[in-house]
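Subject: complex prediction, re-run

Hi both,

The earlier run crashed halfway through, so I resubmitted it with identical inputs.
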Amino acid sequence: MKKQYNTARSLDVRGVSCPVNAVRVKQAISELGDEELIEVLVDAGESLIRVVQSINDAGHRILKSRQHDDAVGIIVGRNRPTIQQQKVRP
Amino acid sequence: MKMSYSELDHAALGKVGMMLQNQPDYYVMRLKAVAGDLTVRQLARIAEVAEQYGRGFVHLSTRQGVEIHYVHRDNLGKAKELLAEAGVEMGACGPRVRSIVACPGGETCRWGVIDTKEMARELDARYFKQEMPSKFKFAVTGCSSNCTKANENDIGIRGAIEPLWLEDSCTDCGLCVSFCPVGAIARKDTDEAVSYEADEDACVNCTVCSSLCPSSAWVVGRKGYTVFIGGTMGRKPRFASVLKRIVETEEEVYALVDAAVSCYREHGKKKERFGHTIDRIGLENIREEIFEKAVQHSQKP
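This time it finished cleanly. Structure:
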């Protein structure tokens, strides 16, 4: 059964180089309401790795991804304090 | 200490890292750095010597070392002495084990799987400057990003992990399929369940999945070292062959390295690089012999 995600917002950072893509994504996520979701479109490859790394480090929640031709769509929700604590690196 | 001209035996000087330049009477002083590390005190001394006895510059080699150029033969002894006072040793030239190169590794790099510097220091203590059939290069690199190019060296050691998927933690976000750099992860959807699998042959043993999985469903299953043999660039380039994909203990790494070095000494012709010896004898034959020797080695008391 396919779960539906209600993404009110979206952000396309294809073609934006590192680390600007990750910064823009983080900024957009920080503007989300608690239950809001955003779909972020990122170039596959190194950009995807950098952006995911930055989302994880901030403790945000990645719920689903969709693979497009040369890009990946990631559905993300804002962090919750407890998750953030877990994700802090030593 | 001033050297007399009769003492200047080029082969002997090469042994201690001094090479005659195109300019008669002038030498390159090749200095040793293990894993590319030098203290600021050492750097200051190198600068002093380059100023006083060289021409006020240094050359950075491709093997993370420093060379002082244009040192007159009459000053080699004095320069060497000054460097030694600060703990700067001479590098290696000719048919022997060269400076051990390494990336910063797990100590500082988020992708590093192993302590590369510690291993470089250990390899340095065991093999540096030892005589070999030809030049012999070691490299240690922390992960599959392969920054120090393990497979371009006679023996390369690369940090490696084998990923493991935990069904209970997985949220089926599907991201791993996209971010795996070599497309080794596949999602399997049957009527009963969804699962993710990493294709062992395609996997390059990096840590992208185990580091990036948002729900920590990909974790490090096994961790260790990939040992490569027979890599070389130069006139007849040859990428290294994998001796063993995942070696789990340091002891086994050293047993394998010892065995590989001993095989090369036994079979290698003068001036023939290890990789070319391997091609001449056959990879499978050499691997078999190395594994046999390594077992004998580890059985020694």
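Chain B has nine helices and eleven strands.

- K.
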